[in-house]
Here is the input.
Amino acid sequence: MSAHRILVVDDEAYVTHVLRQYLERDGYSVRTASNGEKALEAAEDFDPEVVITDVQMPRMNGQTLCEELVRRRAAAAPLLLVMTSRTDRELRAWAQTMVAADFLEKPVSPRRVLARIAEHFAPTEAGAA
Amino acid sequence: MRASSKRTFTLFSVLAALVALAAALAFALSEQRRAATDAIARQGPALTALLADRLVATDRADAAARLHSLEPMLAGGALAYVSVEQGGTALASRAAPGLSIPAAADDAAVREFDVAGQRLREFSAGGADGTPRVRSAWRVPPLALSALPAGQFAAIVAPFAIAGLCGAMLLRRGTRPLGRMADVLAAAETGLDLPAGGAGAGADIVDAFEHVLKAAEQRLRELSDRAQDDFAHNRLIAYQKRCAEAALDALPDGLVIMDEGGVASFASQRVESLIGIPGEAIVGHKPHEWCEQPDVIALLSRYSSNVTRLRRNDHLEFCPGDDDGRRIRVSARPLSGGRAGSATVVVFRDVTHEALARKSRDDFVGHVAHELKSPLNVIRMHAEMLADFGEELSGDTVTSINVIEDEVDRLAKLIEDVLNLTRLESGSLVIDRQRVKLNGFLEDVFETVRRAASARGITTSLDVPARLGSVALDKDLFRIALNNLLTNAVKYNRDGGNVSLHAEETDESLIIRVADTGLGIAPEARAHIFDKFYRADDETAAARGGHGLGLALAREIVTLHNGRLTVESTVGEGSTFTIELRKSAHLLQEAS
Here is the structure.
């Protein structure tokens, strides 16, 4: 079975670095991008199953990235994990409109991210747990 | 005065009646006499000429015979005498008894003279060219009552008499108020020197009239003065009203006053520039007739409803009409202490600048929060990675890493609470209530705390009835409040203690209790635990971490839900925090 593909998007290299370490240790195939535009380019050939993204980034922010991914991939859109420090309503209202978007409240615990992804790929196991 | 006036008046009435009677009588008599005179003037010359024409000269017998035929007329009294003469000698003559025929005058056709107290009018005809001359004399009726037939007299006099009496009565009645006024005035002005009864009734009347006139003049002057006063007063009131309106118009706020039925009775000029609705369109109308904002209509309509009892003034913010970014706050305040069915003052205020200032402060706080959290995020991630990826770590290092992780979480929580509290206090975080099934919601919130509790060996118990009703809540905010209470219950608990979440429903409210078996709160501290940044002066408590905003935020949120957050505690045994939410109609209406 080929490894699940995860795309990590953050302008903070320290963040992408840590997440890459954890994800690769657990056997995932990881790509990173420093903003939304680069993430879209990477998504073209990488076809990620999960996208972990920051919200506030230069060039293209996380919200636009998510919307673009949903628009381009439609039903095959990846699971979107949005890391945010903002808990304001607009963002939550926006999340309601996104299918399969989930929030990761900052400060993000890599262990919890891994747990969330594992749950996503093993729904039956998670359901049994 | 009164008696004398009455007497005068009676006298006057009788006199008037007598004068009327006399006048009537004189008129009747003169009419009678004129009729008789007319008859003489007609008959006299005709008869005289006829006789002169028919009589044959010097024929005494013929003359005597003809005159004899006039006997009834002589007896009737109208004709006094008739005589026929020729050449100075009498041919024949006839006269009423006791009447002697006077000598003829020269050629006079008509003459009038008195004989034995009797007025006679004599007509003569003929006498020319040796023809006999005829003279006839007629009695001119005297001006005497006896000459009038009794029936005619009565018919003439009676109406006059009755009319006179009626007139007198009417006159008396008509002037009675005058007399009374005179009496009253006289009684009122006893000081006035009036001529005594000697001057007679006429003087009384004159006095009375003078009084009336004086009084009328006085009254007129008073009325005129008062009218002037009233005028001045009205001018003053109008002036003050204009001043008040000008003042209201000059205020930066717009004012609308609604009567108890919700109909606007006043709108200041500022209202139009604030919300773009002219005063004429507002005055005389109900809110839904002039306002386009559903929220504002709902707010204002509450004040015209007879059902609701309003406890406080109410306000909300809206953007009027065009999307030019202006924000207007409308607040309503009943005039009579919140009793329904009273007039309401509605104030419109431009809060655009406030809103902008608030927004920029919120933006600033939000920005700072974000910038603080980003490095915290990195620190947290790296601390975890240090623990998970490093080589074999010493116990101290593991402890240090745990401290770093805990402090990062605490700092992040503080930032989040500061952010929320700032928004709540500035009013920019508007509460967004939705119907929430309380038992599912409580279980969900409790689950996150359960993990933290079990890590410290603290047992948890959830006691929420399955059939708990739904309630209108701002889910996000209420979760923060509950989470703060539950986190505290774990944090300030003893190892192996218990945290419980209990909920129950009464007829009027929903009650949620968070109880711990921890340190408890000293009585002197209890009054302050909801204050911002208050930390109990207790070494054990201080060592537990926390930042002193959690409870302040929780209470703020519960209050926003029209609820109450209270605490009971026994030192050494634990604390119980109770949230009471009223299931008021108001609350349910707003959620629907």
